Amino acid sequence: MGVENSIRFPQNFLWGGAIAANQAEGAYLEDGKGLSTADVLPCGADRLERSMDTSAMNALMNRIEGYYPSHEAIDFYHRYKEDVALFAQMGFKCFRTSVAWSRIFPNGDEEMPNENGLKFYDDLFDELLKYDIQPVITISHYEMPLGLVKKYGGWRDRKVVYFFERYAKSLFERYKDKVKYWMTFNEINITAHVPFIGAGIILKEDDSKYQVIYQAIHHQFVGSALAVKACHEIISDAKIGCMLAGGPNYPYTCNPEDVFEAMQKDRISLFFGDVQSRGYYPNYIKRFFRENNVNIEMEDGDEEILKQNTVDYVAFSYYMSHAVSTSPEKAGEVKRNIFGGVKNPYLKASDWGWQIDPKGLRYILNQFYDRYQKPLFIVENGLGAVDIVEEGEVINDDYRIDYLRDHLVQVAEAIEDGVDLIGYTTWGPIDLVSVSTGEMKKRYGFIYVDKDNEGRGTLRRVKKKSFNWYKQVIETNGELLFEN
User: Fold this and answer.
1) Catalytic positions (predicted)?
2) Do 110 and 148 form a contact (C-beta atoms < 8 A)?
């Protein structure tokens, strides 16, 4: 029986959109907020590469010069009521955002939280709930107080585990009656690839790279498990999940070497879900540690903390799949993709070189559900593109509609396959600052924001063609996707 003959999306399915505090709020030093790692990230196409440059990042930590789009972003901090009203017009059932850690604990190691920061999120959550929109909240989304990097070296220091636990508990206590869906770290597996963005780590010349990164990841795992424990104790009816950057790895050929290499690439990311969902380090990663001289320092009780405090659901982002070859020079490497890989000749690519693969979303939904047997939540999926404002402020983004429709049809297929799926939030429902390049011209939204890469513009909001399309998708609970 195909999806055309069955219920495609459950009646309680959470349709919505997703943003991040550091990419949308702006107000980067208002109301007591401290500097964060996101506030000092350089801009440009080589942003991720520059974040790996030790001397460059050490300099940026102490001197912010030039223009940073994220410092004002789309001014969501002051305009959230207008934006939430637009989300409500689309019929959102949920809205995913993050709390900026440095709004709550400006330096990260304070004893008491910043009341002004807490009140902003009270007001935001109240505004969402006024429209019956469920807040879905990420505790740490590519942002941590810069003070924790300067003083402790980011997540390389065990003390940060307890600063994170204090921060998480502060959120649970404050918002226990308002927020029922939580996630600990955004795309936690990114730390293995871009350690400054994921964990506030600036590698030193004499560092053993893998040792430092995976020790920091262990600290994040413990911090995440302690947050899960606190959430369950403080908010009995809440659900708290982990969040991964998803994207399957396909072998470029049926050569067994390529097939095995694709499995190994998958494991680099799946490892993060394995520990948080299953509660222990899998044997394959232990071999990796042995072969790369990684010795994870654990404190007494760490293994028990991980085992007893596994997540309730597995959330993930999905933008593309990856093709893997043991002879990449023959296949042609993919540029502007931190996961690497080669070009897949069967797929088209976005303006930014991201390979578009709707069926890969069905693939990874099945892969995750087969592996974890826990509810899943797609919390990011979208198309970054250059949008043209035509006469009369019309924006015909049919390419975005096509992209989302094709992916959502595959989501429906995965539900028919038996996958337990909580919901789907597009990235991002309103234009915001790109994390990969720090620019505004890479637009994702159903709502256009009049601002360019140099900060010019009025910040006015304009509905794109996709706005009404997504509204109808939600109104019909996905049935629109299957109309001819």
Assistant:
1) 380
2) no
Q: What is the dihedral of CA 462, 466, 467, 470, to 10 degrees?
A: -170
Q: pLDDT (tens digit, 0 to 9) for every residue of the chain, 484 residues total?
A: 455 555 689 999 999 999 999 999 999 999 999 999 999 987 777 777 777 777 767 777 776 777 888 999 999 999 999 999 999 999 999 999 999 999 999 999 999 999 999 999 999 999 999 999 999 999 999 999 999 999 999 999 999 999 999 999 999 999 999 999 999 999 999 999 999 999 999 999 899 999 999 999 999 999 999 999 999 999 999 999 999 999 999 999 999 999 999 999 999 999 999 999 999 999 999 999 999 999 999 999 999 999 999 999 999 999 999 999 998 776 666 655 567 788 899 999 888 788 899 999 999 999 999 999 999 999 999 999 999 999 999 999 999 999 999 999 999 999 999 999 999 999 999 999 998 888 899 999 999 999 998 889 999 999 999 999 999 999 999 999 998 6
Please give the Cα distance from 483 to 460 (Å, whole number).
Answer: 33
CA 304 to chain CA mean position, Å: 27
Tokens of 478: 């996905």
- Over the range 289-312, which residues count as b (16 or more CB within 10 Å of their CB) and which as e? beeeebebeeeeebeebbeebbbb
**In whole angstroms, what is the distance from residue 366 CA to residue 417 CA?**
8
For residue 126, give both structure tokens.
């109240």
Copy the structure tokens of residue 247: 């994207």
Residue whose token pair is 């505790």: 139
Both structure tokens of 192: 């293995």
Q: Which domains does the chain have, with CATH numbers?
A: 3-482 (3.20.20.80)
Active site residues: 380
